[in-house]
């Protein structure tokens, strides 16, 4: 289903409330909430609201385990552009999550160690009972995570090559496209698909054309997000601008 909100703030507060509800419900049952998280500008207001719920409304993250979708490769965790830095600054530094419950693909691995790291990432998710909820943004290539055009629907966590458009869109953060890593480690489409609930968020006119393709276009590896049409557990959460090309 597609949900259209008047603006991204209202949409983000709604998504944050769903996450909080999941965490509290699991807590009451003495269970762990397993969250799949995204970086980028899209989820920032969701994380801001989660921080507010923690500080002002007693939401605890003690029973939360997180798996981030992706990280650039190579990337040092303390670099300004790393997704580790992003998550710490926008969420983890401001809540009571246990550090050992945070998982983000490791951008410092030796090439030879990547395959086993990726298998281990999948195994950890499975051992915890799978992702309860996966949050997604969407890139202008139609990527989810860093699953660029050509990604297989059953792909797992792996090293990928970033699309030129993705590197161009990231160039501002890196002071030029030439400084953007050419690779990343990302959860696969198959990894994302196994989540019990998937929420893809998109805001602004800039995302309207790719949202039209993702929601209404032919299902194809050319636009990886179209695979989400095959899942019954997906909700597209949009602001009016991102939804403006939908028929
Ligand atoms: C980030 C990720 C990407 C972004 C997408 C949109 O972890 O996996 O798929 O969600 O590139 O980025 P923004 O939100 O910056 O427009």
From TrEMBL:
Signal peptide (residue range): none
The name this protein goes by in its record: Glucosamine-6-phosphate deaminase
Source taxon at top rank: Bacteria
Species of origin: Hufsiella arboris
Full-length numbering of the shown residues: 16 to 262 of 638
Ranges for domain Glucosamine/galactosamine-6-phosphate isomerase: 12-229
